[in-house]
Amino acid sequence: MSQAMGQARDHAAADVSATVHTKSDRLAGGKSAIDFQTEPARYRHWKLAVDGDVATLTMDVDEKAGLFEGYDLKLNSYDLGVDIELADAIERLRFEYPQARVLVLRSAKPRVFCAGANIRMLGGASHAHKVNFCKFTNETRNGIEDLSESSGVKSICAINGTAAGGGYELALATDYIMLGDDGTAAVSLPELPLLAVLPGTGGLTRVSDKRKVRRDLADVFCTTEEGVRGKRAVDWRLVDAVAPGSKFEDTVITRAKEFAAQSPRRASGPGIKLTPLKRTISPTGITYETVSAEFARAERIATITLQGPKASPPASADAMVKEGADLWPLKLARELDDAILHIRLNELDIAAIVFKSAGDPAQVLAYDQFLDANNDHWLAHEIRHLWKRVLKRVDLTSRSLVTLIEPGSCFAGTLAELPLASDRSYMLIGLHDGDNKPEAALALAEANFGAYPMSNGLTRLECRFLATPQSVETAKAARGKTLDAEEAQALGLITFALDDIDWDDEVRVFLEERASFSPDGLTGLEANLRFAGPETMETKIFARLTAWQNWIFQRPNAIGEDGALKRYGTGQKPVFDTKRV
Amino acid sequence: MSQAMGQARDHAAADVSATVHTKSDRLAGGKSAIDFQTEPARYRHWKLAVDGDVATLTMDVDEKAGLFEGYDLKLNSYDLGVDIELADAIERLRFEYPQARVLVLRSAKPRVFCAGANIRMLGGASHAHKVNFCKFTNETRNGIEDLSESSGVKSICAINGTAAGGGYELALATDYIMLGDDGTAAVSLPELPLLAVLPGTGGLTRVSDKRKVRRDLADVFCTTEEGVRGKRAVDWRLVDAVAPGSKFEDTVITRAKEFAAQSPRRASGPGIKLTPLKRTISPTGITYETVSAEFARAERIATITLQGPKASPPASADAMVKEGADLWPLKLARELDDAILHIRLNELDIAAIVFKSAGDPAQVLAYDQFLDANNDHWLAHEIRHLWKRVLKRVDLTSRSLVTLIEPGSCFAGTLAELPLASDRSYMLIGLHDGDNKPEAALALAEANFGAYPMSNGLTRLECRFLATPQSVETAKAARGKTLDAEEAQALGLITFALDDIDWDDEVRVFLEERASFSPDGLTGLEANLRFAGPETMETKIFARLTAWQNWIFQRPNAIGEDGALKRYGTGQKPVFDTKRV
Fold it and tell me: Does A579 contact B349 at a Cβ distance shorter than 8 Å?
C-alpha cells in the first residue's frame, strides 16, 4: 500500500470514530476525532528547515486552519492543532536530522512572535479539552528541553516582536532567549490580568525555577499586561539578551553557530524517515502494526495490547538504520504514544487503560540488549529517549492504569515498565483453564535501572521501593531471569498474583469498581500516589501548577457567564466573586 | 482587668464582627466569627493530661458542640472547632509543659479512634471554608511533626478502634502508629470511594512520602472503604505495630517510656502560662497589645501593624521566663498568628494584607540578639520555632501580601521576614512631606539566615536569591546595619524604593489593581511564585495535594446536587459525569 493510500484510509477511518466533541467545541472540517499524526508536507502552521547543523522552526500560523470551529488563529496564536505540528517537528529533528545541532525558533509574522494559546478557543473548549490541551503543550515544551538535554540540540528563541502568554512560555522552553530591542518587542504573561487564569504551559514554574526570576519581580511581571522589554527583561532574567533590530539577525546567526559548535550531539550520517503510522481506526478501536487499542465503551475500559517483536534484533547498527521506522521498538513506541494520545483527547469516558502484551519475553530482552550494545549509536540513543518520553506520557495520563500479565505475554525489559507505571498489576499463577500458552512471565533488564527516569528523576523501581532501596538491588540481581507470578510478587514487582479460579472475578470487580468511582477523585488520587519522592521542575509543572490551573479553570471567575474567559473581547469587564479562597 | 473579664469582653466583641457566614454555613450559638483562641478549661473535645514526661491528648468529641449548625460530631468526627482545640493543646505542650517528652494521642470513645472530618459539615460548608479548614488542619498536623522534630516530643498514636479518613491522617502526623488487633481496629482512607474527594489533610502525601507505602498498595488502600487491619497494616507500612487488646495498654506505656527516654528535649521545668490574648474586636478591625488589624472593606485591604518592643530585652533567661507570655516576641507572634487566622476564615473578601510596623529597629535587633544568646534555653528555642510556624502560616495565606516600609517602622531581624514573605515590598526614600519620624530602615540579623526556613526548607533569602546565591552572602555581610531604601534595593531586599512624590499613587494603584484581579487567579499565581526551589513533604501537601483537592472540591461529582458529598447518607448513590479529565 502506498503512503498516500495509507493516509487516505487513515483519514477516512478517523471520521467513523465515536463522536465526543460536542456543539460547543466542534472540530473543524467535519472531523470527529483529533489526529496526532502529521508530517511536514501537511503542516499548516510551521516550517521546518535544516541548513547544515542549524535547524530553524518558523511559526507562521494559518489563522483559518484552527482545529475547532469558531475562532481564527490570529497573531500566531495557537490551539492543539498547532502544537501537534510542533511536537511532530521536534520528533523529526531527533530521527530525521541527526546532523542538526542547534534549533532556532522564530516567527514569520511581522512584529509578533506568538500571542499564546487562542483565547476564543479556550473560551469555547470543554474543561476536559482545556486540561488535556495544556498537558500536551507542556509535554511538547518538555520535549524541547529534552532535545537539548538528551540529544544535545540546544535551542534559541529569536523574539522579534511580542511574545505573550503561551508565546513567552514557548520561549521559556528554549535554552537561550533573544529579544529584539526595537521598542515593540516584549515578553509577557498577561493571563492573570487579562483572563483570570494562570499561564498554563509551565510559565510560572519556568520563571521561578528555570530562570529563577526573583519572586517579587515575577509578581510584577505576571501582573503587568504589557509585559517587560529591553534591558529590564535581561536584568530581571526574563530573557538572555537583547539586540537592536539592525544587529538582531547577525546575532542570532552568531549564537546559533556558537551553540552548534558546542553541541555534544554524537549523531552522524543520514537520518531515518519517520514514515506514517499504519493504522485502522474503527468505531471500537484502533489497530496498528504492533499495538491494538480496543474500546469497551459500556464498561469504560480501553485495552491496549502490545505485540512483541516477530524476529530477532538487527545484526548490526547499519541494519538497524536500514530498518528505520520499521524497527520494532521504534514502531511500538510511536504507536503506543499515538494510542495514548488518542484516548486522552478523544475517548474521555474511558475510566481505565488495561495493558496487555503478546510475544516472547526473550525476544524483547534481546532487543533491549541490542539497544544497550549500540547505546553509542545515535539511533539507539534516540529510541531509548523516545521510550523515556512515551513512558512519562503514560505516567501522566489521567486514567487508571492496570497491567494484566497473562500467559503468552512479554512484559520484559522495556515493556516491564508498563506494569511498573500502572496503578496496579495482576499476574496469573499457572495457566488459564484449557489454554496452552507459555506461563506468564515478567523479566527485568538493564533498561529498568536507569534508562527510563520518571518526571521526578527516579526510575519506576526506585520510586516504587522508596521505603526499601535494597529492594531495587534485589530486583537488579534478577535481571534477565523470567520470573513467574510468585517470584514477581516476592520481589514486590506486581500487586496481585492470582490463580485461574480467582482471576476473572478479581479483575472484573476491580475494573467495575474503578468505573464506579468519581473520575475527578481518581485523577487526583493517582496524580498524588504515582509520584512519591523528589519533585523536579517537570513534576512541579504537572502537579502544582497544573492542579492550580485546573482549579482555576473550574471557577466561575474564569469560566462563568460573567467570567474573564467568557467576557474577553466583548468590551464588558468580567465580574468576580471577590472571596479569596 | 481580670482574665475572666477580658474573656467576656472578647466574646461579646466577637459577635459584632462583620457577618461572613451565610445560611448554608451558620455558626452555632449565634456567633458571627470563628475564634481561634481557646484554653484547656474551655475545651469541649479534647483532654490534655501531663504525667511526668508523658503527655496524653485524649479525643472525646462532644457531638453537640459543632462549630456550625446542622450537624452532630458523631464518632469523634471533627470540624474546625475540634482542630482549634488540638492546635491550642499542641502549642501549650511546647510552652506550658517543657517537661513533656512524649505525646500519646488516643480516643475516649469505645471502638473508634476518629471518624475524620465530619461529612455533613463538609457537605454544607462553602468552598472557601472547606479550603481554609483543610489548610488549618494541615498546619496543625505539621505542628505535631514539628513538635517532634524541633522540640523533641515524639508522638505515639494509639488506635484502639477505627481510624478513618482524617482520623488516620491525624495518626499519620505522629511518629509511631499503634493499632489494636481485636478484629475491629482498622485504618482507612475511604474519602475517594465514599465521598469522591481526596484525603485532604496530607493523607496521600504522608502515605507516599512519609510512610513510603508502595504505590500500588497505596492505591488498593485508598480505594478500599473498610481499610486495612492487623498484620497487613504493618506489612504495608500503614502502621508501625499491632498489639492484641490484652497487651495494648501495656505496650503503649512501654513505648511511651522508651520514647521519653530517647527524647533530646532540652527543656527543664516549669513552663510559662499562655495567658489569653488581650484583644478588642470592632466592626472594622482587631486591636491587640502589639498588633492591630484594620479592615478597609470597601478597598478589600487589611492592614496589619506590628508594634516594636517598648523596652530592652530582659536582663537574663530567668527574667525572660518571668515575663512569660508578656515577652514581646512571644506576644507579637501569638497576636500576629491570631490576626492572620481571623482574616483567613472570617474576612474572605480581603484581597490584600498590608504589613506595616512602628518602633525602633535597634530594639528589635536587640531582642533577636537576646534570643540568639539564649538559644540553648528552652523558652528562647520555642519562641524561635513559634515564629518559624507563624511565618510559614503567612507564606501559606491566600491573600496578596505587601509590606510598606515607611519612616518610623521597625522591619529588622525577625520582622524583616515579613517583607521577604511578601509578594512585593515598597520602601520610602527619605521622609513623607511634613513628617519627622526616623527615615525608613530595613535591617537583617542572624535570624534571617537560618532560624526561619520556609516550607520548602530554604530561608526566605535563599529562595529569593535562587539565581544568585552570592546575594545571600552579600546580604549576610550587611547584618546589623540599618539600610535605607536605596541600600535595601541595591541588595535586592525590596521590590520598589519610592520617594514621597510617587509613594501614595504607586501604592494605591497597586492595591486597587490587586483588588481588581480574579481572586482565584491570584491564589494560584502566588502559590506558585512564592515557593521557588526544592519541594518537601510539606510543600507537596500544600501545593500538589491541596490544589488537586481544591479542584475536586469544585467539581460537580463532589459538590453538585447529585454529587457524592451531597448524597452521602441519603441512601441515594451519587451520579457522576464519567469524563476523565
Answer: yes
